[in-house]
User: Fold this.
Amino acid sequence: MKSPLATPLLFAFLLLVLIGGLWRMDASPDRILNGLAKLGWLVALMWPPSAGGVLPELLVSLMESLAMAFLGTLLAGVVALPLALLGAGNVIGNVLLRFSVRRFYDGLRGIDTLIWALIFVSAVGMGPFAGILALAVPDIGILSKLFSEALESADRRQVEAVRAAGANRVLAVRLGLIPQVAPVMLSQILYTFESNARSSTVLGIVGAGGIGLALADRIRINNWDEVAFIILLILVMVAAIDWMSRRLRLKIIRAS
Amino acid sequence: MVLLALAITVSAWLGEVSISRLLRGLPLAGDYIAGTIPQLRSTHFFADLAYWMWGFTDWALLLADTLLIAYVGTVLGGLAALLLSFPAAATLAPPWVVAVIRRFLELIRTVPTLVLALILVYAFGLGAFAGMLAIAVHSAGALGKLFAEEHENASLAPMEAVRAAGGSWPAQMRFGIFPQSLPGVLSYGLLRFEINVREASVLGIVGAGGIGEELYLAVRQFEYQDISAILVLILATVAVIDLLCGRLRHRVLGSVAP
Assistant:
């Protein structure tokens, strides 16, 4: 911003990194053309999508993904509430405790769901249970952070009113603080559920339950028509969940 | 309430969860995580640190690759998104074009990056190139919609002026709309880069390059200490990138504030 050369220099640098990056990834025209040809061939094989005669099984694993997303979100919400209270400045006065709790949330959400899934699969075994834990852990970090921010922006006067009526601190939080932020929390939980509905469809790739296992298998054995069918199933489910969650959110906002 | 209870029961049954399983599983997960904690004694702290981070040079290189995948993917995806975002803005293009492009963007951003990566690895071979493409495609879908919304918020007066001066449609977009939406576009692009760094760190699991592959191996071979070492490095990288991008974003948005 200071020198007239700064912007062109920055652009040149960014372009250099881009070209260097493409070179490092072996993005030769030859490879791109071959890849595109192969991709075209795959897409041609995808039509028409077919369930491969196991539609009920696929639907059950899709429901399993959805169940994982639901329970993972629920678990995260239940654990995040007390953690959020510990991290909210207007509930806990101790700065050191608040600081360490907040860094703990950052750690949880800094690691991707899929990495948690890998870890939980080797800790508790394959299956949807590992997936539920993997979805819940990073969400605990995200929800705790969002909840504690919501708590901090709540109105103080209601808490003071409950205190003035002779309630202790716990009751003041329960009756003066939580009701104010409950609608915000519910709508954040719904957002998390939407995001989990998407993530839960890929966890099966590392063995953590759901439709992802079926998808990865079909790709491995080159049944592209079934791959297309499963992707369509996932798209329909995601669209349905988004639609329902949007309606619920509007209801919550109107009710409050 | 009844509905919620029913949903929990059905999900618990589908998810093969029971309280006994949970109680049995949690200590196992706890033990596992405890096993990854390195032994760092204050007496020979640096020797312990060096032992824990034995693969540091390899891992740092792989992390650099991961960042490169995220960067190139964001730039290429962002450029594609920018091209598609003008015809996807309801104020700038006829309704049927907007509808077609918006559906297309929706389609490519709903397919999870990892699924795209699986398919692209098959087409383009193992390695970072397939991962970068997966990130680029997903980013194009996500950013295209956000960019289009930025363009919709822009004032139409400068565009009319360019049209009155005889500018073609691309010229109207370039000189009438784009200067107004640029800060928003840059800010969303930076935000997407942060997300893509996280996504790129797991692509290796399906063979699409980056640090994920090494992590996958460590988990598979129960190299507990390596798992924690790699995770700490990923966390540190993500934190640094978030910090830098946050600063840059404030500067980009601050530079146009009245």
Observations:
- Chain A touches chain B through 63 residues (CB under 8 Å).
- Residues 55-255 of chain A form a domain with the MetI-like fold fold (CATH 1.10.3720.10).
- The two ends of chain A are 47 Å apart (CA to CA).
- Chain A has a mean pLDDT of 86.
